[in-house]
Amino acid sequence: MAKLWAGRTDGNICAVAEEFNSSISFDRRLFAEDIKGSVAHAEMLAAKHIISAQEARQIVDGLLGILDDVNAGTLAIDENAEDIHTFVEQTLTERIGEAGKKLHTARSRNDQVALDMRLYTRNAIDDMSKSLRRLIEVIVAKAEKYQDTIMCGYTHLQRAQPITFGHHLAAYAFMFLRDLDRLRDCRKRLNSSPIGACALAGTTYPTDRQMEAAALGFDEVVQNSIDAVSDRDYLVELLADLSLLMTHISRFAEEIVLWCSWEFGYIRLSDDFTTGSSIMPQKKNPDIAELARGKTGRVYGDLMALLTVFKGLPLAYNKDMQEDKESAFDAMDTVGECINVFTPMVASIEANADKMLAAAKEGFINATDLADYLAQKGVPFRTAYHTVGKIVAYCVANGKTLEDMGLEEYQSFDLHFAEDVYQTINLENCVRRRISQGGTSPESVRRQIEYIRAKLN
Ligand code: ARG
């Protein structure tokens, strides 16, 4: 396909260089944004009498015709075009003639691609935010369902204190709520219009950047034309936000993998989200959770790639910047996919409450409550802590749990122990009493859930 920039040279470059230079294979996904931006540009040019109203009409109709035809499948995006901007402009000129050649007045591909990327990314953020909200809602519904289901809380992956499964799940909802907030923040910062910066220095035409910005839903224009064509900060910011989101996905995925192992047996995943083994007939593997955990690495890699492309890049536009797209698209696609498969998978989780409770009864996870019991009877906490440590060691040596200990056995360690000790170490009571804000009692967890739901609305 002929080059837009043929002139100084005949526009013919060597075949490998052509292939190397071309971006149409990945920037074709900016097609709709390119049309949208071009429509706004033509309308602004006419409003400012830079082109005639009739030329603008022809351009806009031509652009919308191209949009319809590509969407209908009657026009194919030409893979031989240098990039999507070339394809749209050349197709327009083929279709409407001379007027098509006026579209690029007071515009450069530098501000055009900057605009298209911002429009595309804004849309992608809106889509991801919608999916993320759904994921949070699903987690919150599970948390509500399991607000009374007792399980071990862990530190160092060692049984620590009794919590509820609902409390644990709600922790993930809060992480994703912060991710949602970060996406909103990133969207706010990207929502300034770069169009009108032209190549880098602005233009001698009497353009109206505000008008184009408003037509395209931007809050304002990027104030400095050099910055406008050089800036991809919002992509780095987004990929950092997405990396953190994937950190949360991967931590959740890791726990799901652990929980559905025979060793834990805490949950059942629907068969819809597990696979079998080609050789071991008994297997039910949590591939989806594992893959999501693995894809975290891709998104981190995309962030690193983007940072590295921009490091030390002089102002203003450099062709290196074409390399922003594949990393950014890959991160957005990957996160979108992960959220979309995670949501129904989490919805399918069923807790095995008996297994959770059995494990909770085994790890002396009510030992803190036992120490608190003595402290409440006037024993200094540090002394109480030591006494309970000795009791646990005694139990371990004698194959007992705290519940199995007789009252005289307790009293041989400290005379403050009385009959009410058994109520104190009862796991349900341990959970129910942790009413502090953010704590594990069903009442506290209900308040956490209300908080999340209020934030979502
Ligand atoms: N494909 C290019 C990119 O993605 C479009 C901008 C080209 N600008 C230029 N001056 N060659 O960055």
Describe the structure.
The chain is mostly helical and 457 residues long. It folds into three domains: 15-105, Orthogonal Bundle (Fumarase C, Chain B, domain 1), CATH 1.10.275; 110-141 and 162-354, Fumarase C, Chain A, domain 2, CATH 1.20.200; 359-456, Orthogonal Bundle (Ribonucleotide Reductase Protein R1, domain 1), CATH 1.10.40.30. It has 19 helices and six strands. The protein has helices at residues 15-21, 24-27, 31-47, 53-72, 84-96, 109-145, 165-190, 209-215, 225-230, 233-259, 287-310, 324-347, 353-360, 367-376, 381-398, 407-413, 421-425, 427-432, 442-456; strands at 150-155, 158-164, 192-193, 220-221, 267-268, 350-351. The strands form three sheets. It has a two-stranded antiparallel sheet. α8 links the parallel β3 (192-193) and β4 (220-221). α10 (233-259) packs parallel to α12. The radius of gyration is 31 Å and the shape is elongated. Bound molecules: arginine (ARG).
Helices and strands, with pairings:
Elements: H1 15-21, H2 24-27, H3 31-47, H4 53-72, H5 84-96, H6 109-145, E1 150-155, E2 158-164, H7 165-190, E3 192-193, H8 209-215, E4 220-221, H9 225-230, H10 233-259, E5 267-268, H11 287-310, H12 324-347, E6 350-351, H13 353-360, H14 367-376, H15 381-398, H16 407-413, H17 421-425, H18 427-432, H19 442-456
Parallel strand pairs: 3-4
Antiparallel strand pairs: 1-2, 5-6
Helix pairs in contact: 3-4, 3-6, 3-8, 4-5, 6-7, 6-12, 6-19, 7-10, 7-19, 10-11, 10-12, 11-12, 14-15
The protein binds arginine.
Arginine binds at residues 23, 27, 83, 109-110, 113, 317, 319, 321-322.
